[in-house]
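I am going through a labmate's work and have reached the protein record below. What it holds is a sequence and that sequence's fold in token form. Please read both lines and tell me whether the tokens look consistent with the sequence. Do not assume that whoever made the record got everything right. Thanks in advance; the entry in question is below.
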Amino acid sequence: MYRLKKQCGNARRGQFVTCHGTIETPAFMNVATCGAIKGAVSALDLKEIGCQVQLCNTYHLHLRPGDETVKALGGLHAFTKWDGPILTDSGGFQVFSLAKLRDIKEEGVTFASHIDGHRIFMGPEESMRIQSNLGSTIAMAFDECVENPAEYDYAAKSCERTLRWLYRCREEMERLRALPDTINPKQMLWGINQGCTFADLRVQHMREIRKLNLDGYAIGGLAVGESAEEMYQIIEAVEPEMPQDKIRYLMGVGTPVNILEAVKRGVDIFDCVMPSRNARHGHIFTSEGCRNLMNAKYERDLSPLDPNCDCPVCRSFSRAYVHHLFKSGEMLAMRLSVLHNLYFYNNLMKKIRDALDEDRFDAFYEENVSVIGKRI
């Protein structure tokens, strides 16, 4: 259940209550694709750096170790030892992004595994069953993600198919929640808005999916080839059509600036691999901008990664040390950098929430939007 506490323009301060705890919004979801954050970070580490939600990947966990195995081991919460909310995506984006050969039909999608090439079929019912086996707090509806730019006619037909799939997802989830061996009978379903960069398709699709009165609504199919400005325009077009009393999720986005801009436009929750992926290559997000620790200038720099950060890494280690770890090929370099970047993202969200609570979001936006995205 989502509760809107207050607004500053379109920016929203709220709470989302789940069976695994309450999420303070705006919030960032930390991407644990296969049940772990890449970079040697466990679910237990996430508590220390202020994480609220873990996102796990339906497609990857279905392939390995298998959703039936996860169910037999007690579900994702027992398996990963994360006791807070977990969102599982539907697998639709991975079918779009990873499967080289895929055949999309009304029943669902047949595609080749990126691991060994064996053929797999996944449709709305299969996606719901996999997510039910995983026992996540929130399950995402199975959708078709279309690359931008797209042909208008194909995008329109894709929206219609995604809508039909959504009804099938809801029906299957209702059946699964009633089964006696279901891990999480209180699992929630969020629908996904599609329509590429065509505002009229986006608006019409949002009007249709909101009729289902789901637990939450996502804007999908962005950050897949369009410009940042196009993305912001789509958010502005869709936002007025999104229910005020439901949580709003912008999928796969993005940079700290993207997040700040989207919060300003009315989005509540985000996920992105960027903080962990960039960290593993020495790219560090800071209050002063983005820092590349691979650069030689950090060889003797005893400053913390971010002088304005109180994360466990910045309290203990220097730029020179982490630079040395990267140059030496030490795994610790990735772990420390991922911990810092995830802390930065979650702390950014806390600062946004504080600014909304204190009626100073506009000032916070102006102070930070031109700084946190620049390269140092």
In short: The first helix runs from residue 43 to 48. The chain has 15 helices and 16 strands.
